[in-house]
């Protein structure tokens, strides 16, 4: 018996309604039994993930344009930064291109919203990670009414065309929504307040954003419904348990890298001749 | 008794002649007893390195401009890439900015040699790693006579001024020459030839470069003599033993981060008030 891939369990079906209220943030679908087992299973993926990454990079030196882009979205404290640290940290940093998107700068605001995203894409052979992304332009932009509703509306289609062009250019796009509960967010924000070493991560604005929780959940549902496509599906990752979140993201990446199946390129030189020349030195 | 810092043992003294022939590439000064102990000691530095990195990054969110730049130079197979993988891999990748410099592109050749380097510098709070650097412009440029000798000569002073300006702007520059022996390079190149999965890392040009070994050693001696300054010293890291190289670079970084001594910034909000607001949600 072959286990059903995690990507099938967590994928948002294209063209269907999504009700986040019916997805349990504390669930652990197909996951290890507990935290200890989860951590061990994640650590055990470091070797195969690193091996795939090396082959992906090696293949790019021979002209293979394929690469992988992990897009992380989620409410404050959902664990985007923790995922970068614990999952992206499993890879060789030299082949990773990590970008945390903040509020757009003055220069960025003068360009179309995808401009800054195009500049941060992984190059052939690389593993890219976006901590927030162009989805902010249909999330906070919608909730905070930063642009008119009809412009937000057009952006879903723009995003789908953009991501399809990425897929055509060899980019495997893996989009993960880190799904936490309202209660878990409160507990994590409190933990930040109660530890002075974490005050730098906290802002009173976080509480204002939290007050808009229902509007954000709705904006996420819309974004995930409209933009979960065959070329670039969305995955809802239950994230109340950090160990499950790290395991699930690692597993999703592993499944996609297995599908890419990069191979070491052959050398274009005469091994015997080089060997002889080298031994003569 | 306090052990003498590794940085003092490995530093190239400013203003003195350097004879690389008298530095043993297989030495393990102040290092652990063997490979197993070396690996364990390096792994044990992951926690303090990560902790310093987080504090450095946190401080930058409150305006602290300090950051660290590790510059890696060395002959082919000396382990620049391996150091990035095993040492930079100890840090949180979101706070690392890693740049591997290749032969300059057409665009880069149209600019002064420091242009592409300035664009790749770590931002405040980041750990930067250069795999090769502006030193190629006084190494291969000298050995291969890519530019006239008097221009190479002027570059040493330009580099010193550049690195002093970095230090003035809060950049701790740690320059490590990975010192391997001629015999060890042969063994490593042969190992690449003998493993088809490593052929992508090999080029017959590597043998041509190897033929210029004495000229490169001389170019390194000159660069390290001229550019080991108070603001940005060079360290000669014996690199025939990979485990020692990884330990020594980790230790050098730890010593420099300890000296920087970054602190978590205090919050600028009323904790009690935020706590009450949060508990009401």
Question: How do you describe this structure in short?
Answer:
The structure is a homodimer of 281-residue chains. The first copy, chain A, is of the alpha/beta class. Chain A contains 13 helices and 5 strands.
Please explain how this structure is put together.
- 2 copies of one chain form a homodimer.
- The first copy, chain A, is 46% helix and 11% strand.
- The first copy, chain A, is built from 13 helices and 5 strands.
- Chain A has helices at residues 6-10, 35-44, 46-60, 80-86, 106-109, 115-118, 140-143, 149-168, 182-193, 205-210, 213-227, 242-260, 271-279, and strands at residues 67-74, 96-100, 127-131, 171-179, 234-238.
- In chain A, strands 2-3-1-4-5 form a 5-stranded parallel beta sheet, with helices on both faces.
- In chain A, helix 2 (35-44) packs parallel to helix 12 (242-260) and helix 3 runs parallel beside helix 12.
- The longest helix of chain A has 20 residues, at 149-168.
- The relative contact order of chain A is 0.21.
- The model of chain A has no long low-confidence stretch (mean pLDDT 97).
- The A-B interface holds A 58, 61-62, 81, 84-85, 88-89, 91-94, 96, 98, 100, 129, 131, 186, 189-190, 193, 196-197, 199-204, 207, 210-211, 264-267, 269, 271, 274-275, 277-279, 281 and B 58, 61-62, 81, 84-85, 88-89, 91-94, 96, 98, 100, 129, 131, 186, 189-190, 193, 196-197, 199-204, 207, 210-211, 264-267, 269, 271, 274-275, 277-279, 281.
